[in-house]
Amino acid sequence: MKPEVVCGLLTSLTTARLGQDFVVEETTSTSVLDLLREEEEVSDLDFTMVDHLDPDNLGLLRFNAMWEAYYRQDSLLVFSTGRSPTIYKELRKEKPLLTPDISIMSVGTEIMYGESMIRDEDWEQYLNQNWNREIVTEETAQFPELNPQSETEQRPHKVSFFVEKIKALKVIRFLSERLEKRGLDVKLIYSNETALDVLPKGAGKGQALAYLLEKFKVDGKMPVNTLVCGDSGNDAELFSVPEVYGVMVSNAQEELLQWHAENAKNNPNIIHATERCAAGIIQAIGNFSLGPNVSPRDIGDFQKCKVKIFNSCHEVVKFYLFYERWRRAEVAKNMQTPNLIFFPLGTFVHPSGVEQPVNHCIDVMARLHGDKQGTDYRIWVDRVSSEQVGSDTWLMKFYKWEAFGEERHGCLTTVLLSSKAKVPDGFTWMHMHQTWLEGSEPKDQTTWIWDGEKLASIHSKSTTLHNSGGF
Ligand code: GLC
Ligand code: MG
Fold first, then answer.
1. Are strands 75-80 and 12-14 parallel, antiparallel or unpaired?
2. What is the CATH number of the domain that holds 219?
3. Where does the Sucrose phosphatase-like domain start and stop, copy by copy (predicted)?
4. Full-model pTM
5. Average pLDDT value for residue range 202-231
């Protein structure tokens, strides 16, 4: 059995559009697969979804707003990364990443479903075929050129090293021969001109995606379109999965571009974007006409926007974008405050448990104009779901995240929206209830006091005050 050798690095993103009546359930691994997806987006993380050279994460935030406004309800977001679950979770703490429907980790050797990350044990079982980790570690130990990666990156079906580029080809050749002689069926992937992964032959990002697509097909839930997104060698396999659209982001590495030139040059469904990372993904969605490709973050003034969008998820994204801009003083103070969209008798249950009439919150918000001017303050929403509960009423549920410097706080938020009342062609916010997401409450809850006077005095003393009037 000849081991497969893949040089380069590959990263991926999958999106799928789902039927309208879909309900998110995450208790079993099949529940995610039960959903009918229209589109699927499979994306690599490092230097594809996440631009480590963009400290403001603007591309990612643009993507997030677009995804939550237009795709979350009926599409499937898949992250496919070389990272182990341990360092994947670290990245999630550092960057404003959305929650994917499926996470494929450790270079396609671990597949997990939903937010609670339920493992696909069938996949791991399948990877056991002709795989023997001990033999791999025994044989690789014979190569002094191979420096083992950290313990976290050594996984049941992945043994990883660093090796210098000039030594890599030779090591790969000899190691392949030795593993073949020992009867193993393996795949060696060289990525980022530095990392060497030894995997079972049936593993890898491409194989993991093909496995998922096959599962969807058997269940009659095949996504209408799949877009794969990557930047490096271990992503190359994704672009060979039949019938997918693909985007190599502008900053893709030579190893991936070279693979493309040699293997997929004439495939019109693969593009090399002119934009970096997540901006390149947005570009590809437009290029292949897969759906809306204008991020709400790219719309400066919704009042002037000619296309009226009547969509409850978009409403949530738009409101928090306005709120961020309000506090950053990116919208003028004399600009219409959003009090029009709040039901005057509505209530707001703050995550501290305090209940306030909504009008009070609007007064507080008015005072917060510009309190985050010139800072890195950002808001994004994740997992926005919308349930129509009456002829003109929607129950919205989402995570709202605020980041400011080193601090990050998240609330599970439920909102009742109504489409009649005051706003023509728009929504009225009837009621809002927030609870802290586990471990994300601020240490000092006194800054969350709703007393306007007290707030004003805290505000004048402390420039680090955050979220005091937060919705
Ligand atoms: C990620 C993983 C590493 C792997 C590399 C290339 O950086 O952490 O273990 O070698 O991707 O696939
Ligand atoms: Mg990458």
1. antiparallel
2. 3.40.50.1000
3. 42-288
4. 0.89
5. 95
